[in-house]
Amino acid sequence: MPNLYVTPIEIKQAMPDGIQSSTLKYDAILTRLAERVSRFVDNYCGRVFFPRLATRYFDGGGKSEIAVPDLLEITSVAYSEDEGETYTELTASDYYATVEGDYNSGRSWTRLVVSRLSETLGAWPIGQRSVRVVGVWGYADEREEAWIDSGDTVRDDPLGLAATAITVAGVTGADVWGMAPRFQAGRLAKIESEYVEIAAANSDTNVLTAVRGRNGSTAAAHALGSAIYSWRAPEPVQQACIIQAVRQLERGFQGFGEARANADLGQMFWIKSLDPEAKELLQMYVW
Q: Is residue 240 located within the same domain as residue 133?
């Protein structure tokens, strides 16, 4: 299941008295829940928290600024003066990327601004599809720290472009921030410019089963020793997904009833809608 903001392992770690980490029989259910909750969060916030390489088009409107969806990396920016028939690429000195006008913010960019020093453009052209942007789209609190160094590398010599098994030094080891296990089923990883989805992580053989060329990237061969990075959504988003996934799991355990009562506390918990704590955690990300 693609682009999970939380993995089955992380859900189980958050509720050790509910499901032990060594218990595997709920993993398929937890994976489906994680995907469902992740997409629910996307819809609730009006943005996505995973990276996707894509080409997108915008109407310039004759102004010096245009709004763009969350943008993590820019490969190229080009403009058209003939309704998208032909494009002329700009240099990095022709424009700036900002976060709502803030040039210094580390969050995903939301504005493209024509530089006053540009000798090519004075404003974005008027017309349909007059601006073309190739880049990596998605939200991160810190663009430069969204990809976490796993501390591990490709151990295949080489990793072929069609291979679905990736050998690593240690599945259960810690990443550079000390988080373990560094490789988990459901997590998105990056090797050079290719994104791969980890479908399974075997700690006995230290082999990852991967879906190659994910999120608009292209599968490619990778040399022995190529670094592997892991994507993680912002911490509040992860926590909100854990809370909501556990609530939905509990609802399943009780036969999808509308509520549950605690006679000792004299309270009734309604768990069908978005959890209040999860909602509070996500509020800062609502577009």
A: no
Residue-number span of the structural domain to which 197 is assigned: 8-45+143-231
Exposure string over 131-165, b if 16+ CB within 10 A, otherwise e:
bbbebbbbbbbebeebbbebbbbbbbeebeeebee
- pTM greater than the 0.85 cutoff: yes
Residue 98: partners with Cβ closer than 8 Å, 6 or more residues away: 105, 109, 110, 111, 112, 113
| pLDDT tens-place string over residues 119-146 | 999 999 999 999 999 999 999 999 999 9
Cis ω for the linkage preceding 181 (within 30 of 0): yes
Kindly state whether residue 263 falls inside one of the protein's structural domains.
yes
Q: Within a domain: residue 1?
A: no
Cβ atoms of 52 and 113 within 8 Å: the answer is no
